Amino acid sequence: MRGDQYRQFRAVAGNCTRLGLLLAGLSTTVMAQAPPELSRAVQFYGHEQGGAESPTFRWALADLNDDGRDDAIVLLTGPKYCGADGCTMLVFRGTDQGFTLLSATAIVMAPIRVSANSADGWRSLIVYSKAKGDVVLKFSGTHYPANPSVQPKVDRVELEAAANAIQ
Fold this sequence. Notes:
By secondary structure, the protein is α+β, with helices and mostly antiparallel strands. It has helices at residues 3-31, 36-48, 156-161, and strands at 56-62, 71-77, 82-83, 86-95, 98-119, 122-129, 133-137, 163-166. Strands 1, 2, 3, 4, 5, 6, 7 and 8 form an eight-stranded antiparallel beta sheet that branches. The longest helix is centred in the first third of the chain and has 29 residues, at 3-31. It is globular and about 40 Å long. The model is unreliable at 9-31 (pLDDT under 50).
């Protein structure tokens, strides 16, 4: 290959690489969008809390109650839902119609993990509490605890067996 052919080849290869990276970034962005039903449920929660705008959030889907349907773990972001000690975490039950709010927990920090252990038919959640470190949120039969700072610390075995949900 002559010098000018080599330069043309490198220019084309560079453009292809940039295009590939751009497309990979777009596909990651598309995959990272929440399901529309979940976005609507979070927006409804935000409006119920007096917000004019839809809250921003991070999310994960997991079958928390072993019914074969994904439930949603949502960590709200932004100043309305976050403070120095953490943010609001929502748990939604997956239904045929979308998602229904099950529980709201304040002052949660990532990471959020799904435990292999269950309480009252729902997987326990492991969250980071600034006051105590990693703690276990056990389902009460109707909801998860509202304040993680008064929950027990997770033991090492349960923590190591847990699946990451939100980093």
